[in-house]
Amino acid sequence: MSPTKSLPINAATAADADRVYGLEPVLETGHDARFSQVQKFVSIACPYCGGGYDSAVDLTQGTQEYIEDCQVCCRSIELSIEVVNGVVKAVCERRIDGA
User: What HEC string does 30-82 produce?
Assistant: First the structure.
């Protein structure tokens, strides 16, 4: 059995841990400044159950409409996201059943 590697006392960053253990770095878009201009998380309120959750929006696509399942109750929601010049201006959630 080979000895386990341990982090050096001064290994203070995740990058140091990745290097020591030979791991691929994890890409966390919510904390990476390179992605702050192309992606934004918006708050969604489910029109069925009233539950709230955050959903990622691709700002490069402009105004968009699509269907997404609620992360709380799993029912399908029609989302309209108004994006102007890379800024989310409005979010509209609608039930698909028309009620």
Answer: HHCHHHCCCEEEEEEECCCCCCEEEEEEEHHHCCEEEEEECCCCCCEEEEEEE
